[in-house]
Automatic annotation (TrEMBL):
It holds the Pfam family YkuD. PANTHER family: L,D-TRANSPEPTIDASE, L,D-TRANSPEPTIDASE YCIB-RELATED. Keywords: Acyltransferase, Cell shape, Cell wall biogenesis/degradation, Peptidoglycan synthesis, Transferase. It comes from Actinomadura graeca. The active site is at 342 (proton donor/acceptor), 360 (nucleophile). CDD domains: YkuD_like. This is L,D-transpeptidase family protein.
């Protein structure tokens, strides 16, 4: 019958150039000639004295950042272009790195781009070989370094935890240590991989948090990885990602429960098969605070015991007849507004007959213990039959948003499909 917040009982890049740049002004002609002359005033075999230097030939391959560049913007990555001919091999790697930078070669083999931003404050070497289009070979090398930013951002938390086994409704919640203004750039750097192709979308819930939700529940026993290529991403003017982040989790069996508040029944299905049905008692209503929310809930955590009190509704005076504070066993949290599925031995007579709780789902002790023991974060608990809908931002009520509205919360305004692991 209790409801309350639980407390566990205890800019564009300009390649560098070398030499003197020819100038059109007449006063600069002598400068140009001087650059072309040898130390003894000879022209170096390029023509008779006083003739103009031959025009520079465009190199068959260009690399940006150019050789010798210092302070290159890491978010611009690396671009290799075959001005003539094609590219055979491109290798870009940080000094001392064992693996090259990931990149993509165009279908016509005339350009290559780094797939992700570079690490800030890092020295790199880019080498390439190819064909010059005239039957010869080409090669080029660029050694450069990226800038050291004055401010950085990092990922401060990812839910679920690394290695965690979760339910089929589990969201992926990424939290940053500072507000993100260039959200599209950051969102684009987040790569999801799964053992099957999964279609979903990111949704920004605030300036420091973005959440991924599949369009439909995860497949049971799916393996999922998040690779955040945030190092070098420009999240705000002068603010770059300090590092990346890699984590992974596994989806367990599918456990989807339904609570019918009108019939006072709760049914649990595992991998689509009904395994338990019991009588329960939901919120007694009469006021909004005592009404269980209807909608798709996710289990967020659990405790045995959990201290529940009337403080959630502002009642702290022990003399107030509405006051309560007690330890509740086998409590599984399903929202941030104080709703749990928990053991309620004091209301066994009402379970299956009437709703008498302050908003929680009161369950028989034996069933509550079983439900608690098998609960994973992200299990689905759908409640029907009440007049109060679950808010999409109440706990992990993300499944309450229609798919189109969920996608609209993406800075890229589009869904994504995971790569295969």
């Amino acid at each position: 019958m209790l409801r309350g917040f639980g407390e566990h009982g205890t800019g564009r890049r300009t390649p560098l150039t070398a030499g003197c740049a020819p100038v059109v002004l007449g006063a600069a002609v002598m400068l140009t000639a001087a650059c072309a002359s040898g130390a003894n005033g000879e022209t170096g075999g390029h023509g008779p004295p006083g003739s103009a230097a031959p025009p520079r030939r465009t190199p068959p391959v260009t690399i940006e950042p150019a050789d010798g560049t210092r302070g290159a913007r890491p978010d611009l990555g690396v671009v290799v272009t075959a001005v003539r001919g094609t590219l055979d091999r491109v290798d870009v790697r940080a000094d001392g790195a064992s693996r090259p930078v990931a990149g993509r070669l165009s279908a016509d083999r005339r350009s290559w781009r780094a797939r992700w931003p570079l690490r800030p404050g890092t020295a790199y070497t880019a080498t390439t070989t190819g064909e010059d289009g005239r039957g010869g070979r080409t090669s080029a090398t660029s050694r450069f370094s990226t800038l050291r930013p004055s401010a950085t951002f990092r990922i401060s938390d990812v839910t679920p935890a690394r290695g965690e086994i979760v339910g089929v409704g589990m969201p992926v919640i990424v939290t940053f240590d500072r507000p993100i203004t260039r959200r599209a750039a950051v969102e684009r750097s987040l790569e999801l991989r799964a053992s099957r192709h999964v279609r979903g979308a990111w949704h920004w819930t605030g300036p420091r948090q973005v959440v991924f939700r599949p369009r439909r529940f995860w497949h049971a026993r799916e393996r999922v990885s998040l690779i955040a290529h945030t190092a070098g991403v420009r999240a705000a003017p002068g603010v770059y990602g300090a590092s990346g982040h890699t984590t992974g989790f596994q989806v367990g069996r599918s456990r989807v429960s339904t609570v019918d508040a009108l019939r006072h029944r709760m049914t649990v299905r595992i991998d689509g098969r009904p395994v338990r049905t019991v009588g329960i008692s939901a919120g007694k209503g009469g006021r909004r605070a005592y009404t269980t929310t209807s909608g798709v809930h996710l289990t967020m955590g659990k405790g045995d015991p959990v201290v529940m009190s009337s403080a959630w509704m502002g009642v702290t005076d022990k003399k107030d007849p509405r006051f309560y504070k007690m330890k509740v066993r086998h409590a599984v949290q399903i929202s941030s507004s104080g709703e749990y599925v928990h053991s309620a031995p004091w209301s066994v007579r009402s379970q299956g007959r009437e709703n008498v709780s302050h908003g929680c789902v009161n369950a028989p002790p034996e069933f509550a213990g079983w439900f608690y023991a098998g609960s994973l974060r992200g299990d689905v608990v759908t409640v029907t039959g009440t007049s109060r809908p679950l808010e999409w931002n109440n706990g992990w009520g993300y499944w309450q948003l229609p798919w189109s509205r969920w996608v609209a919360g993406s800075a890229l305004n589009r869904p994504v499909t995971s790569a295969r692991t």
